[in-house]
């Protein structure tokens, strides 16, 4: 699998999700929050400005190297997992064979920090179709100025089904890796005690609202 350094890529269409309006809108909004080229702050996020993105969006919190949990998750994530994703490990969304790789990509997004984009796939069966999608991960600062949050989205074609779906990272598609070229305060790891007891976001009801505009 190839990794595309977006800063040096001449073909934007090669990037995962480059033509998707939801991912484009999310990234453009994230860019508006980059005051003086800094990593956007979680508290700067105003969900009402990206209403049409919310069903696909999520926020991850870093709790250990390569390990993140859902703090906020839109309706589309619920429809894949068939449960409330908030508080669940991000790897819950992936099949076992892709979990090490997604942990590496998440850690790159947090630690460098970097924008990460990838194509994902949920295999089909006789009774349910294959699903192909695109995912975007955008680093964000917490109130202490460290990159312990990722703003992301997963977009796929419309789908139906009553059983949970899990994804693998598509091996035939390039991965977008865009280091932001800045040194910021070292990312702090949540203590294990608080990682297990801290509740998902409840102060941003507009973002955690179950919304489905599809």
What's this model, at a glance?
With 214 residues, this protein is of the alpha+beta class. The chain is built from five helices and eight strands, in the order βαββααβββββαα.
Q: How would you describe this protein?
A:
This protein is of the alpha+beta class and 214 residues long. It contains five helices and eight strands, in the order E-H-E-E-H-H-E-E-E-E-E-H-H. Strands 1, 2, 3, 4, 5, 6, 7 and 8 form an eight-stranded mixed beta sheet that branches.
What structural category characterises the helix and strand content?
alpha+beta
Quaternary form: single chain
Task: Kindly report how far apart the N and C termini lie.
Answer: 31 Å
Instruction: Choose one word for the global shape.
Output: globular
- Percent of residues in β-strands: 15-25%
| Low-pLDDT runs | 6-11, 184-199, 202-214
**Record field, number of beta strands:** 8
| Chain-averaged pLDDT | 83
Count up the helices: 5
How helix-rich are the residues, as a percent range? Answer: 10-25%
Largest sheet: 8 strands, mixed
Q: Mind telling me the C-alpha Rg?
A: 16 Å
Give the helices and strands as they follow along the chain.
EHEEHHEEEEEHH
